[in-house]
Amino acid sequence: MRRLPPGGRIPALDGLRGVLAVVVLTYHVTLCCGTNALGNFATAAVCCFFIISGYVLTHAYDGRYAAFLARRAVRLWPVYALCFLIGAAVQRRAFPLPVLAWFPGLDFHPGMPALLANPPAWSLCIEAWAMPFIPLIAWFGRGAVTRAALIPPLCLALWEIPGPAFWLGFFCVGAALSRFDFRSRPLEARIPQWLGKVSYSLYLVHMPVLSALLIAFGRPGVVLGVPLVFSAAWLMWKYVERPSITLSRRVGRPARPAALPLPVPG
Description:
Number of domains: 1
Number of helices: 10
Distance between the termini: 49 Å
Number of strands: 0
Structural class: mainly alpha
Oligomer: single chain
Largest sheet: none
Order of helices and strands: HHHHHHHHHH
Shape: globular
Strand content: under 5%
């Protein structure tokens, strides 16, 4: 199995993440302005996020299950929790405390009341609930190519299970695609790369900011305040996400063997 390039990044996928985050942002801007015309595009963007996760994590998974789960929690939870708390404060909305632990209930979905403080949080709950299945997800991306043929019947079976199980199929699709290189010069350009860098923060912070703008200034404020969203995403990336990335890389790192004492000349 090929490993990720140095630094664990695939530039074209980073750029794609950035573009998809902007699609979701655009959808929520238009939603605040009273139209749901881009709803299908936003849903497709989230499905692509799940596929990208399956692709990247299949490369990154090294078989150390507990360490992997700990790294993902440290990597994802701080931004998720802080943005959810900001959204709840802006809207003065109560929420069940288990939401902060990615547990809004067994039947969570877009728009469920428990997640209205920050609606994009639903997909992070899917992400968190999919991670314990990483051995299964990675299995589809390793070994015989014919394993990919099992994904459609798996998705049909998951469709019959109540709750969020169906979304696991998108991670498996990403795992199967991880056998192939993904490169795109336009997505590797400067602007998509910057958007990709802050995409996770942008994805989770934009709704709290848009909600604040809508409450304070109405619909015109939402449109005119879009640059503020990108500023908030950069601040969230710099002061919360980047430290959590650094810390996650230290979690579960194999200890270096103790150096053997040098022989003393006789």
